[in-house]
Amino acid sequence: MFTSAPYTSALLVLLCLLDHSSSYLPPSSSQCNRNLYPQPWNLRFDQISILMSGFAEKRLPLVRQIARSYSVSPIVNAIYILWGNMSTPWQLLNQTDSLSLGAPIYIVRQDSTSLNDRFLPRAFIQTRAVLICDDDITITLDELKFLFQMWKENERRIVGFFPRSHEYQIHQKSWIYTIHPDRYSIMLTKVMIIATDYLYQYTCKMPKGVKAYIDSQMNCEDIAMNFVVANATDQGPLLVSGNPRDWGDTRNSDSDFSVSGLSAKKEHRKKRGDCITVFHQLWEGMPLRYSYGKVVNNVEEQVLCQKNDTLVRCNS
Ligand SMILES: *[C@@H]1O[C@H](CO)[C@@H](O)[C@H](O)[C@H]1NC(C)=O
Ligand SMILES: *[C@@H]1O[C@H](CO)[C@@H](O)[C@H](O)[C@H]1NC(C)=O
Ligand SMILES: *[C@@H]1O[C@H](CO)[C@@H](O)[C@H](O)[C@H]1NC(C)=O
Ligand SMILES: *[C@@H]1O[C@H](CO)[C@@H](O)[C@H](O)[C@H]1NC(C)=O
Question: What is the pLDDT of residues 142-199, one digit of tens each?
């Protein structure tokens, strides 16, 4: 029956593809078909996938170096460099093949320059958690391990290194975006871990209008993710102590609090405050919650003493 070979094999390939998802949807709406993605309980819990956003060609050498350094870690399942510059020629990106020292490194070209695309759910992700990071931040493998450990104990929350805060201005009747010395409600996507499932929730379950607003402002996708998670958990994010190295991006950067006076930075903060105000309206409430304090990686060894027949802490 299947004799016209080329036609048949193409058909069979198509059938195999269709077989993976139980129902076929056209590409535009297929993103939100749950069946396209592994079920959370089928994903690995002992490893993490890294989604690193890259855009500037001049930083490609740094991106490669960062990806290579993460590939050594046994807790890293795979590293995906989400490349957002659509004009970058393939030849520039293709030199990643021999980079890996362990975990595979992939370049994933984004289909658009929308900031929302960094949070697209991906059928290829095989882990329950993803590390979201920018291309100009490095953390040590010990910090990565600790961050992942803390996420495992708080798997519904955002766990990260860079905290920010929202605050209400009574007179202006609007929200501001700020740094508060002892509380925080927003974790920056410079580097953070979230459950993989939040990518789906961000893309498919956010209130209408949020993604369009982000596209119009070219900003605040990270704040929206914090809204998604806070709304799902009714909890704030978790801050972990560490010393991530920031190589200083200017695009969508938040280094605005360390340098004084520049009007561009003031403008950036204002824009982010406006995002909070708009998201508050679109969510019809304020899901963001404050957290206090941070988790410290205490490497101090527990010295045990034998007292009678049992081991107890020496200072107890
Ligand atoms: C994006 O790619 C184009 C084409 O290679 C390049 O001219 C441009 O500088 C790139 N943008 C950045 C920010 O690197
Ligand atoms: C780069 O890699 C892609 C995907 O593997 C391939 O389609 C393309 O031909 C490669 N381009 C070059 C210039 O090597
Ligand atoms: C926020 O959380 C509430 C309570 O769980 C839920 O009913 C609502 O649908 C959520 N809103 C969004 C936009 O996810
Ligand atoms: C050790 O055991 C003895 C006998 O059981 C008991 O009298 C003594 O109080 C114990 N010492 C400590 C430090 O627990």
Answer: 999 999 999 999 999 999 999 999 999 988 889 999 998 889 999 999 999 999 999 9
125-142, pLDDT tens digit by residue? 999 999 999 988 889 999
Phi, psi dihedrals of residue 165, rounded to the nearest 5°? -145, 150
Proximal ligand: closest to the CA of 316: 4
d(CA 52, CA 83): 8
Q: What is the DSSP string of 101-125?
A: SSS-EEEEE-SS--GGGGG---TT-
CA-to-CA dists, residue 66 to 61, 79, 173, angstroms: 9, 10, 43
- Domain ranges, ordered by start, for the chain: 5-313
Residues 6+ apart with CB under 8 A from 261: none
Q: Angle between the 141-153 and 60-71 helix axes, to the nearest 10 degrees?
A: 70
Q: In which band, very low, low, confident or very high, does the pLDDT at 283 lie, cut at 50, 70 and 90?
A: very high
Residue nearest to atom 4 of ligand 2 (CA): 94
Closest ligand 1 atom to residue 59 Cα is 14
Catalytic site positions: 222
- List, in order, residues 6 or more apart from 162 with CB less than 8 Å away: 187, 188, 190, 191, 192, 244, 254
Statement: 5-313 belongs to CATH 3.90.550.10 = yes
Between 119 and 62, where is the model more confident?
119
The amino acid that residue 36 corresponds to is L
Residue nearest to atom 9 of ligand 4 (CA): 308
The gap from C-alpha 96 to its chain's centroid, in whole angstroms, comes to: 22
Mean pLDDT of the chain: 83
